[in-house]
Structures are given as structure tokens and as C-alpha cells.
Design goal:
The complex is a heterodimer. Chain A is of the alpha+beta class. Chain A is built from 14 helices and eleven strands. Chain A is about 55% helix and about 15% strand. In chain A, the strands form two sheets. In chain A, strands 4-5-9-6-8-7 form a six-stranded mixed sheet. In chain A, strands 1, 2, 3, 10 and 11 form a five-stranded antiparallel sheet that branches. In chain A, strand 4 (about 100-105) and strand 5 (about 110-115) form a beta hairpin. Chain B is α/β, with parallel strands linked by helices. In chain B, strand 7 (about 165), helix 6 and strand 8 (about 195-200) form a beta-alpha-beta unit. Classes of the chains: A alpha+beta, B alpha/beta. The interface of A and B includes residues 3, 279, 282 and 367 of A.
Chain lengths: ~375, ~220
């Protein structure tokens, strides 16, 4: 084996022994750095997972949503609107959507009621996992909801949606069209909004402009605008999270500076003895660099593993309210890991590089002057 | 061979606390010979050893190894000289606590990049030769003074240096351990190694192990 590698292996073993000897200090450093990696890791991983979830959810959204407005507020789309759009060039498909909000006095929460694209049997509902958990509903349960006239209307739960859909549909309830119109006293032929699909997705914005001209008093919301808006919101909230973590980062910086600004008398003497034995400044910095890197690597492995488990097994419960926003439905998100490699590499670099560098400054100082000076008690 | 040519050493030069520890010392240490530096406390013995061992630089004059001046070289080259050519046994032994005797002995070879097996074999061989092999895996801080000194000697010999320097080797030893060191001294000057020992212990000076006695007083050579 090359002498350089033998030397580094020797330094590595020596660094390990040195850290073990000062185990209490090592543990404190390890714990503080691991906590920081855990917090930053949780934030990055959760934000990344929410971005992916949002993108996946919105991928199924219509290219263009056309909404009717009256005096600046949303109004129902009147009968005949769909037919009026029929002749538009570039329109591949269009259909009306029905959805609304329902206040649930039992939970004090407002849930979203949808009519799905596929037909449902009358008197049946499918419910989101968060709503089901909050109300204690399961498949086969018979439930009653107060309709627009204040009368209880019976339904049978046929399905609880899987937790993997909790982000998009955790607080939602699905029922058939006739049930919806009866439940909300929604006028026949009216729609909440219209969903349009362009033949060429790149022409969606042009199609939206044509639709608005065809149906005065409407506005168009494009899927790409929704994707951008979600991204902006998540960026903003992640920035807010980083600002909130600034205190922790500052504490770590103080700790690193404390380490950088001086060595203990025992460490200075140890370095002086090593110099007397023929170690040059490069060897000493390799030794101390390995010490810093070992602590940081341990902190990274511990902190990142904890962050990964926190986000992908426990739904990022500690930071999820910050990034996702408040909700009456405390859903445990089932987030998919996706490609977390870049995040891991970023955190590894953030953890190891400064810690190793922080170990080098005092070593460089200790390597100045004569070795005999440092050995004096 | 190590030579000191017109070497002077001042501490805190140019300040009111200036102190000249050595003045105009011309001295050569020949290979294969044991030289004992003697003199009262504060006479400059340790300072001279530190200069000869490249652990300190002279304020004036030159230190030469094999006729080549080294004292003006950069720290990396001085460190390499210490690593490859000099073994130093300190008065306080300076073993690193929390490391075993074996790990302490291996330290000079770590910087040399000696392979692990060869490093350990040599360190254990030296500890055995110095009759402290049975304590190889004991923490250095738990060894007796005599054992610590033998470990320190093993460490100084680890890279097979041309020069072995020992500063007051019997100062921290009881009578029996000091006698053992005097006995050991006669066996260390093998293979043409230069031995330089400072001591004001009459047992060492009068032991007959020394080929040459050099006396220092107030930083000057009194007799060579």
C-alpha cells in the first residue's frame, strides 16, 4: 500500500483514538451537529417531497379551469356554457366539474366535497384518510351529513382513500352527481367550473384566452400557473423554515468558532509532542481534519437517518405544519422518498466541510513557533 | 555527525526579558560515541539538546547534520530531519496519555507512512528489547516512571535514527531505575548511532558509559 495511504490510515486511527479519549466533548459536538443536520435535513427532504407530491397531484389537474365570476366572486357556470365552447379550435375535450365546501359541525372543520369523473352509486361516499381518521369512519360505515336544508342525509362509506393521497385528498369527500345536487340544492345544468383540455398542451394559454372571450365574465386558471404558485409557496415556506433555523445555525457557528479559536492546553501539548516526533504541519492538520470529519460524518449519518425516518415514516410531523400550512385534519402524510441523493450530498458537504475546516485553523496556529515551546507545562 | 558552529540562543530577544541561554558554542558530536552534557541547572544543557535535535532554531550560528546546515531550513524539512534522523527522550518523557505504550511507540512511524504490520512488529520488538513488552497494551499514564522512560526510549528509536538525544534521563527515576538506564546506555550506541545525554547525575557521569563529557556553565562551554 502506498505510504500516503498508510499514513492517512494511521492518522485516521489516531484521530479515532483521540476522539474516544475526549468522549464527553466528542458526544456534545456530535449531538449538536446531528441536531442541526436533522433539522436542515427534515426541512429539505420534506420540502422536496411536498414539491413532488404537489407536482404529481397537479399532473392530473385539467390544463385549463374556467371559472364564472359575478361581482368578483365565484358563481356557478350556467347551462349552455359547455356547448358554447364546443366550436373552439384547439379544444380537445371539455367537461363541467362539481365541487363545494361543507362545514362539519362535529369536527368544526370545513371539508371539500367533490363529484368524481367516474360514476358512483347513489347514497355512497368515498372519504379522504385524514377525514376518516378524524371522524372514525371506515368502509361500510353508515353516516349522516346535514344537507343544505339542515336535514341529515344518510350515506354509506364505500372506500377510505389511501394515506398516499392524504396531501391532495385527506380532507375530501366524494359523492355521485345526483347526491351532490341534492345535498347542496345545486341547480340542474349548472357547474362549479369547467375543465378544458387543449389538443396541443403548448397552446393551453391560447385556448384559455379564446374561452374567456367566448364566455365573458369568466376567468381561466392554467395548470402551469398552479404548479408555479405551489412551488413559490413552498419556496417561501422553506425560506421561512431556514430563517427559523437561523438560531440553530448561529449556535453551530459559535460552536465551530469556539473550536476554531483555540485548542485546550492538553491538545496544544499533544500537537507539540507530535511535532517533536517529526510530524510536520501537514500531518497535524490531516490528524485534526480527520477528527473533525469523523465527528461530522457521524453527525451526518445520525442526523440524516433521523431526518429520513422523520419525513418518510412519520410524515415530517415536526415541520409539516410550517411547510404544508395549518389544517383541521391532522393527517399523517405518507410521502415518497424520490431522489434524495442531491439533498444527502448537500447536507454531507454542509456538515463535513466546515467541521473539518474548523479543526484546521487552530492546528495551523499550533504548528507555528518551536515545538519545544508547546511542550512546556 | 552533528555539529554546532558558533551557536547562540536567546529567549525573548530584543525585549527587556531577553535571556541568552547559549553563547558562541562550537561543538561536534561524533557518530558511535556517547557524549554526556553536564552542568548546573540553567547552564543551557536542554537548550543545546533542543538545538541539536532540530526542535529549536539558533538565534545565531548554524546546526549541521553530516556537514549540511539544517537550522535555516523550513519547518517541513526540519520536521523531516527530526522524523528520519533524530530520536528524542524528554525529561518528562512526554508520552501521550490515553494511548497505550504501543500506540505511543508507533507515533513517529505514522508520519513516515510505515505499513501497519511492520510498524507494530518493530514497536513490539523495541518494547520487548527494552523489557517493557508486557506493558505494550497498558495506558501510558498508568506506567511507572521507569516503564515510561523505556517506552519513551523505544519511541525515540522507532524510526532507527542516526542520533539519540536524552534530556536528564535519570532525573525522574529512583535509584534502581536510574542504574538500569546507565546499564542500558552502554547498549544503545550500536550501529554507529550518536548518543547525546544531558545530566548532572554523578552516577551517569561517572559510570564509564560516556565517551566524552562536555561541561556547560552560563550558556558557554567550559571544557570539552
Amino acid at each position: 500500500m502506498a505510504p500516503w495511504i498508510e499514513r492517512q490510515l494511521g492518522f485516521l486511527e489516531s484521530a479515532r483514538a483521540s476522539l474516544a479519549r475526549r468522549w464527553a466533548r466528542t458526544l456534545v459536538l456530535l449531538a449538536v451537529q446531528a441536531l442541526l443536520v436533522f433539522l436542515l435535513g427534515s426541512l429539505f427532504l420534506l420540502a422536496g417531497a411536498l414539491r413532488r407530491e404537489a407536482a404529481a397531484t397537479l399532473a392530473g389537474a385539467p390544463q385549463v379551469i374556467l371559472q364564472k365570476r359575478l361581482a368578483g366572486r365565484l358563481d356557478t357556470v350556467p347551462p349552455g356554457a359547455l356547448e358554447a365552447l364546443g366550436p373552439l379550435r384547439g379544444l380537445r375535450a371539455a367537461h363541467g366539474r362539481l365541487w363545494g365546501f361543507h362545514f362539519d359541525p362535529v369536527t368544526g372543520a370545513t371539508l371539500t366535497v367533490w363529484v368524481p369523473a367516474e360514476p358512483m352509486d347513489p347514497g355512497t361516499v368515498r372519504v379522504g384518510s385524514a377525514l376518516a381518521a378524524l371522524r372514525g369512519w371506515g368502509p361500510g360505515d353508515r353516516i349522516a351529513l346535514l344537507d343544505a336544508r339542515g336535514e341529515p342525509r344518510p350515506f354509506r362509506v364505500v372506500e377510505v382513500l389511501p394515506p398516499s393521497l392524504a396531501l391532495a385528498a385527506g380532507d375530501q369527500l366524494f359523492m355521485g352527481e345526483s347526491d351532490f345536487r341534492g345535498f347542496f340544492a345545486y341547480p340542474e345544468g349548472h357547474w362549479t367550473d369547467l375543465a378544458l383540455e387543449a389538443g396541443n398542451p403548448k397552446e393551453a394559454r391560447t385556448l384559455a384566452a379564446k374561452a374567456v372571450r367566448t364566455l365573458p365574465g369568466t376567468r381561466a386558471v392554467l395548470r402551469e400557473d398552479l404548479v408555479r404558485a405551489y412551488g413559490t409557496i413552498l419556496d417561501w415556506r422553506q425560506g421561512l423554515g431556514l430563517a427559523a433555523l437561523a438560531g440553530a445555525i448561529l449556535a453551530f457557528a459559535i460552536l465551530a468558532w469556539d473550536r476554531a479559536s483555540g485548542l485546550s492546553a492538553e491538545e496544544r501539548r499533544e500537537l507539540a509532542v507530535l511535532r517533536a516526533l517529526g510530524w510536520d504541519p501537514g500531518h497535524l492538520m490531516a490528524l485534526k481534519g480527520w477528527e473533525g470529519a469523523l465527528v461530522a460524518l457521524g453527525a451526518f449519518l445520525g442526523g440524516y437517518t433521523a431526518a429520513y425516518v422523520h419525513v418518510f415514516h412519520f410524515g415530517g410531523g415536526l415541520l409539516e405544519p410550517l411547510l404544508r400550512g395549518g389544517s383541521a385534519f391532522p393527517a399523517r402524510l405518507a410521502l415518497a422518498p424520490g431522489d434524495t441523493g442531491p439533498t444527502a450530498l448537500l447536507l454531507l458537504a454542509l456538515a463535513v466541510a466546515p467541521a473539518a475546516a474548523a479543526a484546521l485553523v487552530p492546528t495551523w496556529r499550533a504548528a507555528a513557533g518551536e515545538p519545544s515551546e508547546g511542550m512546556r507545562p | 555527525m552533528i555539529s554546532l558552529a558558533g551557536v547562540s540562543k536567546a529567549f525573548h530577544p530584543g525585549t527587556p526579558a531577553e535571556h541568552w541561554a547559549l553563547r558562541d558554542v562550537d561543538l561536534a558530536f561524533e557518530a558511535g560515541r556517547v557524549t554526556v552534557l553536564t552542568g548546573p541547572s540553567g547552564s543551557g544543557k536542554t537548550t543545546l539538546l533542543l538545538l541539536a535535535g532540530c526542535l529549536s532554531r539558533p538565534t545565531a550560528g548554524r546546526v549541521l547534520f553530516g556537514g549540511e546546515p539544517v537550522s535555516h531550513l523550513g519547518e517541513r524539512f526540519l520536521a523531516e530531519t527530526r522524523r528520519r534522523r533524530v530520536g528524542f527522550v524528554f525529561q518528562q518523557f512526554n508520552l501521550l496519555p490515553g494511548r497505550t505504550a504501543l500506540q505511543n511507540v508507533e507515533l513517529p512511524a505514522l508520519a513516515l507512512g510505515t505499513p501497519w504490520r511492520a510498524r507494530q512488529a518493530r514497536a513490539l520488538g523495541l518494547l520487548d528489547a527494552l523489557q517493557v513488552g508486557h506493558r505494550a497494551h497498558a495506558d501510558a499514564s498508568r506506567l511507572s516512571a521507569g516503564e515510561q522512560q523505556r517506552v519513551a526510549i523505544a519511541r525515540a528509536l522507532m524510526n532507527d535514527p542516526e542520533v539519540l538525544i536524552a534530556d536528564e534521563p535519570t532525573a525522574n527515576l529512583d535509584a534502581a531505575a536510574a542504574a538500569r538506564f546507565v546499564d542500558l546506555l552502554g547498549r544503545l550506541d550500536t550501529r554507529g548511532r550518536t548518543l547525546i545525554v544531558s545530566s548532572h547525575d554523578p552516577r551517569l557521569v561517572e559510570s564509564g558509559a560516556a565517551h566524552r563529557i562536555v561541561r556547560l556553565r552560563d550558556g558557554r562551554l567550559e571544557e570539552a
